[in-house]
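For the sake of transparency, this paper describes our internal protein records without simplification. Such a record has a labelled line for the sequence and another for the backbone structure tokens. Nothing more is needed to write down the fold, since each code stands for a local backbone conformation. For reference, a complete record is included directly beneath this paragraph.
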Amino acid sequence: MKNTNPEAIDPQSLPKQGYTDDGQGAKNKLTKNHVYSSYQNQEPEASPHIPVLMSEVLHFLHPQKADSYLDLTAGYGGHANAVLESTLSPDKATLVDRDQYAIGYLQQRFRGQGVEIIHQDYLSASQELLVAGRQYSLILADLGVSSPHLDSASRGFSLKTDGPLDMRMDDRQSVTAHDIVNSYDEATLTDLLIRYGQEPRARKIARLIVEHRPISGTRQLASIVAQAWPGHSKVHPATRTFQALRIAVNDELAQLERALPIWIDLLAPEGRIVVISFHSLEDRLVKVAFNQEAGDHYDARLRLLTKHPVEGSQAEIVLNPRARSAKLRAAVKTKTN
């Protein structure tokens, strides 16, 4: 008999990866946002991204047969594949991502399964799904930057390799990190580095950036920022600056703050939501949104499943260092809208 107690789930009993493929093509109801990429006629390679906190996601979502599932940052489908192995209902799954390469991979990974795949940022997709009257048993948002983004020099996220100052999650948008670095005045740059990067030497870094313009590449920018932090450090001195620029380019915090209440609206009664954040600014927004909807007040709609954020085990961090900063919060919906 299947164990229906989420507190007793064995983290070792993870779903196996892999779907069979009947070659019919993935269903997409929002076809205006569907991208037909170079993956269209190819078999997908092994996933280039290792999903974080897999056992914890499955524990708190506790997927059951016939559950509907919304993955708002589906990436390369690692979490989605594991969830669908339990729900056995890919035709009730909606996978969202703003990156066209991830969309192409998802199309192939779930080809012929009837999965709905949407190429949009999660805020726009959430708004459209809400207007359409949709609700889901399970909702997941993993807010981390995927490995292909970090590892690909051409995307401009990496400190390790030189590349253009891009940092766009969706290359259809116009503003890039290059635009911000080379056009914002010193005061605006300072505010951005403090607000989004929590950078203690923001003023000095902003001044150095303005003095060294034009700046064209990630390595050049990283070396300029390093001048504000002489000496050695375990963490690259430009890490906070790159985080701040990425958040600004993709409007990450504003989108998250606006999306969180919509996600609760999209959650069906007794449905479960899991959000994984990767820095304190995101985690605070998730905490506040969940706490506002939970508690003893008469109109509370959520019951918290995590009093404090859940972090990865040391064993996972050794195998997947990018899990080091992951923080998971979960809740269950107890009341209708």
In short: Residues 1-44 have pLDDT under 50 and may be disordered. Strands lie at 69-71, 93-97, 116-119, 136-142, 267-277, 302-304, 310-311, 327-333. The first strand starts at residue 69 and ends at 71.
